[in-house]
Amino acid sequence: MKYNTPQKWWKESVVYQIYPRSFNDSNGDGVGDLRGIIEKLDYLESLGIDVVWLNPVYRSPNDDNGYDISDYRSIMEEFGTMTDFDELLQGLHQREIKLIMDLVVNHSSDEHQWFRESRSSRDNPFRNYYHWWPAENGTPPKRWSYFDLEDNAWKYDGQTNAWYLHYFSPKQPDLNWENPTLRREVYDMMHFWFKKGIDGFRMDVIPFISKDTDFPELPSEYKGDFIAYYANGPHLHAYLQEMNREVLSKYDVMTVGEAPGVTLDQALNFVDEDRKELDMFFHFDLLALDRAPGEVFKMRSDPWKLTEFKEIHSKWDAVFAEKGWGSIFLCNHDFPRSVSRWGNDDKAYWRNSATMLQTFSLSMRGTPYIYQGEEIGMTNIRFDSIEDYRDINTLNAYHKAAHNCDDLHAFLENEKDASRDNARTPVQWDNTRHAGFTQGEPWIKVNPNYKTGLNVAAQEADPDSVLNYFRKMIKVRKTHKTLTYGKYKLVEKDHEQVYAYTRSHQNEQYLVLLNFSTNEVEFPVSSLDFKKGVLLISNDIAPEALPSGYIRLHPYQACIYKLNR
Ligand code: GLC
Ligand code: CA
């Protein structure tokens, strides 16, 4: 069948994200590792996924769990060795699963050899690998930092009487992409991994790499929105095109950029095939939906609305109607758990809402990204005490709040919904101690609900489990290619409880119905050829069609019909 977009393996893939630190610990030190992943290769194969995205496994002092890299060509000691890595890659390929790695090149660790050299003297050959502001020029213009106690992205370094730039923690100095030698180093490093046989990269905060090195005051058009400013560096697209020309175009690989600050109208600049930059990116509009205006890590006070959720996905789908390609994800290692956030983790609704969200991710246009544990419906842990948190972001924010005499109880309540650590508790494998994640003491607490059925082993044994629904839903997506490539169209767009859409191509049409509410809902289907429809999948007993042209959906029910036209 011919679709209106070129067919590609990465458009037809389901990507499964592994956060190695929390996946599976093979040697009892409490930290997940590469051999731990190797032990679970057959499990990964059994899911039916096509690609694994591995969060950073490079050598790192772990100020930000591997996003601070001190050697791009070695494996973090806690995670294992290069031999383990090669075995993992081979084991995945044997099972026809591809592997993509994280490319973290907006910044390195301050313990990287480049930075050690760079900071050692002003005339060191590596000086220009980073951004330095000589102190005799006065205080550098304001730049914000995500992970800095004073929100200051400049840190003064006495050794050379200069400030260096760090958009993230002071241990994550920003690399200077204006320097062609640095860019060459990055491309060489990418070739190193591609020659090993990896299948692509997820690119960390990639829109931030290009900076105006005159460091002007934030231009007024950004009205203080520093993220949008960071994402619009002057040479960004030139660099991405150069990277594509020098590296990506030489291999059959996929790329997905993490793209905070990138808006709908800029989207095609990254992924229009003719521009030869990236294949896909992750936008942040869904992340913002339940956050206070302009805040990345603070929850909004009123509940988010389904109509807003639909609008975000519909707008982003429309952008890629003719060109480019989207990505669909409901959580990752930086977000709380999807079922706790977009579904409902109360006992009565947990199973249906977890499977309803899987139905969504796996029936949309765009490549679906599933985060470890999502296949079994893992939930937020909601730590009560700051002692339990490990994430630099939560810990810094807590210190700031304490320093400012803010309401610390309110702070902790916010983190229960917002903290990245919700996603970082270990995968729950079985009902033995620490959920079978480790024989030792886990680096972060395991969610105690592993004891009550929320674990892989229990769900393997139950044909109706979240896990087995996930496998079934992947098969539905694979069997009906129109669910990958077909046109997306909203049905009853203003309905406040049900997200309904069709996916169609030529004479084929599918209807997806997702009840996002705790109510039983009667949903109108009379505008569709519903009567001749065949139910392909449902996470509950088959919905009842009412004579009035309505269909009755249970709370959080999800189903897909193939309509006959
Ligand atoms: C990205 C990563 C996040 C990390 C940050 C800095 O947002 O997903 O985990 O802290 O970049 O590298
Ligand atoms: Ca370990």
UniProtKB/TrEMBL annotation:
SMART domains, A to Z: Aamy (SM00642)
Annotated Glycosyl hydrolase family 13 catalytic domain residues: 17-424
Lineage top rank: taxon: Bacteria
Any one GO molecular-function label of the UniProt entry: alpha-amylase activity
SUPFAM superfamilies for this protein: (Trans)glycosidases (SSF51445), Glycosyl hydrolase domain (SSF51011)
Claim: Hydrolase is one of the keywords in the record: yes
UniProt keyword annotations, A-Z: Glycosidase, Hydrolase
GO BP of this protein: oligosaccharide catabolic process
Record has Hydrolase as a keyword: yes
Family: Belongs to the glycosyl hydrolase 13 family.
Stated name of the protein: Alpha-glucosidase
Protein source organism: Robertkochia marina
